[in-house]
Amino acid sequence: MRQRNLGNNNALKRHRQQQQIDRNCCLSKRCNYDSIWQHFNRNATLEEIRYAAARICRDHLNGRWKTVAPEDLIVKRVSGGLSNFLYYVSLPAFIEYEEEEVEQLLLQKQQQIEGSVNGKDVISTSESGNSPVYARDDDEVETKSVGVMAGSTKLAHTDDDDDAATSDKQAPKRQRFDSDSVASTYLKRMQPPKQEPREVLLRIYGQTHGDQMMENMITESVVFALLSERNFGPKLYGIFPGGRIEQFLPARSLATAELGEQRISMKVAEKLGDIHSLSIPMSKEPDWIWTCMNRWVTSFESTMKGKCLSKAKNSPVLKKQMELLRTINYEEEIAWLKSVIEAGDYPVVFCHNDLQEGNILMRQTQQERTPRVSISSLRSNFDETLGDSLDGNSNSNISEPERNSSKLHSVSSPPCPELDTTDDSALDSSFTIDTEPDLIIIDFEYCAYNYRGYDLANHFIEWTFDYTNPQYPYFYHNKSNYATGQQRRDFIVQYLKSYHDDENYSPTVKELEKVDEEIRFFTLLSHLYWSLWSIINLTSAIEFGYWEYGIARIVEYQQLKSDYLSK
């Protein structure tokens, strides 16, 4: 028993030492980005995530980001990413003051120091209503810097404010902000330069496979920067091994049901036509999709054995699903599809390759946008602040009608469950559109030159998959939501007008039928690709029903292939 306790104590000691090493990594002048992933994994603590995010932002951003304390940053986990971990990172809310407001605060501060308050407490709060800028004790005046922590009113004392107290006694009532005076320094500390972002999106890359990992990340970052310059996506603020810092867009992701709404669908068609018309300095050969699948096939067998073989013995359903997958020879299916495609005449364009609702943002107008002061209280986005706890998710089956099934899958808690989760934006997701929707396409993670039909087909398949299921496997599959013939036709017409950059372009019936035929055939390739992707990602740390998703896609593939061959 004594040896067991000693072993436990040693293990606890090693764990604490490792935590200190991890924290020191992010506090040191040089952060070890080769191991940055460990700060955001499933076992990461709140403090570790906050310090790692602060370190990354401090290294790659200017202004206030260089000096703000990690505990003052607002850090929230963004939900929705299946391949990456996303984090919303913001400077403290007190930087939202306008210059006139700051001037008034400085005047109050000066009056406080001069003793003109006559014993009354002076507390000026930030717009969020929970972060005092300074306060006066009962018998003694102290100047204090701002310490913003969600739900906290604790203040942090700083040495430079002692100098400020002496300097401000001789300062005039009307402060100037064009010098290096203490007042100017105080203003700079409260307000960042206009070119400095106040909120960013921190993207930590998820699990990748194969020797081409670094090459793929470099290519994606270059393409991301090019698209950003052409206003096809968010701005790029920084790249580091293991992730990047992006512009946080005042927008929300579309809901799956919105993809079929006429105005939104027409705007998506327009955006996709614009993307397909781009000329990007990368290989124009449609090799990307074949390279990915052939690389994954080599890992397929080992992944299946390692993840599922032991569990199949105790699960008749899983055993049956594994038997189904055993009947699929992915190498033969890939070769068959490739031979049919190469025998045809299918256009190759620059493709997004993952145009689902989570990668389509709807911007709010200035009138619609929820004030930034209320970020912490948004109804359906930021449910909690960093440090609060989240309720655990229960489990469910794949399709929506079967959610009450007793056959439930067990899942582990999400990474750092106390960290706030949210939708893909910091805005109220309840706003509706009364005018033409302002959409922006994001996440060109899978972008490459590919067959036009694949990108179109893949988008329409996404009409049937809803990733908002709060329970395992975290998606619904509703085949009845697939686009009708008329919806596809309207989409194709608008797409071709945008692609040809001619609003008066009128496609012929033959052209419309050709594009629609491409969509029907390349639906096969989309199902095969994402089924293989799902199986390979079974070991991913991201919470998602990869196995169930892969089974759903391969079943669809088999049915469509049977229909195709019968015709």
From TrEMBL:
One of its GO terms (molecular function) is choline kinase activity. This is Uncharacterized protein, isoform D. Pfam families: Choline_kinase (PF01633). Its EC number is 2.7.-.-. It is an enzyme of class 2 (transferase). It comes from the Eukaryota. One of its GO terms (cellular component) is cytoplasm. Gene3D superfamilies: 3.90.1200.10, Phosphorylase Kinase, domain 1 (3.30.200.20). SUPFAM superfamilies: Protein kinase-like (PK-like). Belongs to the choline/ethanolamine kinase family. Residues 117-179, 385-427 are annotated as: Disordered. GO terms for biological process: phosphatidylethanolamine biosynthetic process. Keywords: Lipid biosynthesis, Lipid metabolism, Phospholipid biosynthesis, Phospholipid metabolism, Transferase. Transmembrane segments: none annotated.
